[in-house]
C-alpha cells in the first residue's frame, strides 16, 4: 500500500482530483484540515492543550474553540501560530499513522492519501512514500477562485502570497499533475501514474 501526500496552491483543484481518485481507485483519503478539526473537539487532548494556550474564554457557548477568537489572538501574537501548530500537527500525524496501519492490516485498499496545502511546511515529506503536486497556472487558479468562491483579486493575491512558490512545490514533490487544462487530461495523467493499481468503474 502506498502512502501519498497531495498538495498544491489554492485554486489548483486538489479536491476535484481527489474526487476522481476516490471514485476509481481502492483508496482511503484524508484531508488534514478535517482531521485537525476532529482532533480539536471538546474533550480531546488537542482541545485541552489549545485552551491552556489560548485561554478558557477561547471556547464559545457551544464548547467548541471559536475560530475567530483563535485567529484574532494569533494575529495579535504571531508566535502563537507556531505553538498552535506544535499542538495540532503532531496529533494529525499520529492519527494518520494509526489509520494507515489499520488500513494496511485490513488489506482492502491499495492507496492511502492525505491532502493539505501545508504538507511540505509541516514535514510530511518524511512520512509519506511520495508527494504529489497539483499544479495549475496562476491565471487559471485566479479565475476559478473568482467564479467558484467569489473571492476578490485582493483576497486571492493575499492568500497566494502566503503560499509556497511553484518552484518550492516542484522541488519537494515526486509527481506533478498539471490541472491547468481540461479535467479529462488531468484524469489521464492520474491513470498513467496509477496504472499498476486496480482501476474500477
Backbone shape? globular
Strand order of the largest sheet: 2-3-1-4-5
- Radius of gyration using CA atoms only: 18 Å
Overall pLDDT: 94
Beta-strand fraction estimate: 5-15%
Question: In DSSP terms, counting alpha (H) and pi (I) runs of 4 or more, how many helices?
Answer: 9
What ranges have pLDDT less than 50 throughout 5 or more consecutive residues?
Answer: none
Distance between the termini: 20 Å
Please tally the β strands and state the result.
5
Estimated structural class: alpha/beta
Largest sheet: 5 strands, parallel
H-E string: EHEHHHHEEHHHEH
Instruction: State the share of residues found in helices, binned by percent.
Output: 40-55%
Structure, explained:
By secondary structure, this protein is of the alpha/beta class. Helices cover 53% and strands 13% of the residues. The chain contains nine helices and five strands. Strands 2-3-1-4-5 form a five-stranded parallel beta sheet, with helices on both faces. Helix 2 crosses helix 5. The model has no long low-confidence stretch (mean pLDDT 94).
